[in-house]
Amino acid sequence: MRQGKKPKAVSFHAEDEFELARGIFLPAGRYEGWERASAFSTMQSGRKSPPRYELEFTGEQLRELGAFAAREEAPATYDVTQQVAEGMLVLL
């Protein structure tokens, strides 16, 4: 599989609070994240794979969202592609 293109900065809007991961609740509001477009094409259809969407949080931000024992040094990245597809997060 080939490497995808450089990630593109995007903004998301959450109309309502939702559970991002177990015990981590993302409040309604605006968030900055990434769109990662894949350069990989499927052999059968010759089409590009749909983009993936991500949010990244520091340990401090995760604690504010309800995470326990989030480490300071390592940011955590969450794939939110499904939440975008379901309309929980809307691209701005």
Description:
By secondary structure, this protein is mainly beta. It has one domain (8-91). It is built from two helices and seven strands, in the order βββββαβαβ. It has helices at residues 59-64, 81-85, and strands at 8-14, 18-21, 24-26, 29-36, 52-57, 76-79, 90-91. A five-stranded antiparallel β-sheet has the order 6-5-4-1-7. Strands 2-3 form a two-stranded antiparallel ribbon. The mean pLDDT is 85.
Q: Outline of this structure?
A:
This protein is mainly beta.
| Structural class by secondary-structure content | mainly beta
Q: Please state the average pLDDT score.
A: 85
Strand order within the widest sheet? 6-5-4-1-7
Q: Report the helical percentage.
A: 10-25%
* Total domain units: 1
Low-confidence stretches are none
SSE string, helices as H and strands as E? EEEEEHEHE
* Terminal-residue CA separation: 30 Å
Basic shape: globular
The radius of gyration over CA amounts to 15 Å
Q: Based on DSSP secondary structure assignment, what is the total number of beta strands?
A: 7
Note the total helix count: 2
What is the fold's blueprint, element by element?
Blueprint: E1 8-14, E2 18-21, E3 24-26, E4 29-36, E5 52-57, H1 59-64, E6 76-79, H2 81-85, E7 90-91
Antiparallel strand pairs: 1-4, 1-7, 2-3, 4-5, 5-6
List keywords for this structure.
single chain; 92 residues; mainly beta; 5-stranded antiparallel β-sheet; two-stranded antiparallel sheet
